[in-house]
Design goal:
mainly alpha; three-stranded parallel β-sheet; 45% helix; 3-methyl-2-oxobutanoate hydroxymethyltransferase; 3-methyl-2-oxobutanoate hydroxymethyltransferase activity; transferase; magnesium ion binding
Length: 182
């Protein structure tokens, strides 16, 4: 029964990070079911790395993803005294585009690349732990959303929409842009 309690504690820790002002939470090497519950509970985005497909976004270490670190010392740089016989820039760009497309389309990560699992019994125990305070978390989620909106300095300073496409910066008396606010 240790894994469900640890999973529940991870959710509580993610909520504490959000409450402390984190703008996002990275979930690494956790079961997809746990990542989904954490993502649902938080107002801030979650980024998954080995955490299944139910996070707000995905990340991989590109050296690993592209197989760049095959040398035992992971020597990434060609010294000045070495002749460079190949450039892998095109292959890297192609791999990064394919990764981006698969994440956007939701085809990555698939079950094949979501190896962290809980048994059915562990999952049920985790669900019972979540049920204990589901209503309180819903209430806090709304309050957190309001607090994050209030604390969004960029929004208050209108820094998300900088300038307008017309090139005319004198759209109103205060010198701020007139694009629709978020």
């Amino acid at each position: 029964a240790g894994r469900p309690k640890k999973a529940r504690r991870l959710l509580d820790e993610a909520l504490a990070l959000q409450d402390a002002g984190a703008f996002a939470v990275v979930l690494e090497c956790v079961p997809s079911r746990v990542a989904a519950a954490i993502t649902e509970a938080l107002e801030v985005p979650t980024i998954g790395i080995g955490a299944g497909s139910h996070t707000s976004g995905q990340v991989l270490v590109y050296h690993d993803m592209l197989g760049m670190t095959c040398h035992p010392q992971h020597n990434q740089f060609v010294p000045k005294f070495c002749k460079r016989y190949a450039s892998v820039g095109t292959a890297i760009a192609r791999g990064l585009r394919e990764y981006k497309t698969e994440v956007e389309e939701g085809t990555f990560p698939s079950e094949e690349y979501s190896p962290y699992k809980m048994s059915d019994a562990e999952g049920e125990a985790f669900d019972r732990l979540l049920e204990q305070d589901r209503e309180e978390r819903k209430r806090q989620k709304g309050a957190t959303s309001s607090r994050l909106q209030d604390e969004d300095e960029y929004e208050r300073l209108m820094m998300y929409d900088v300038g307008d496409d017309s090139g005319d910066s004198d759209n109103n008396d205060e010198g701020t842009n007139t694009k629709a606010s978020k």
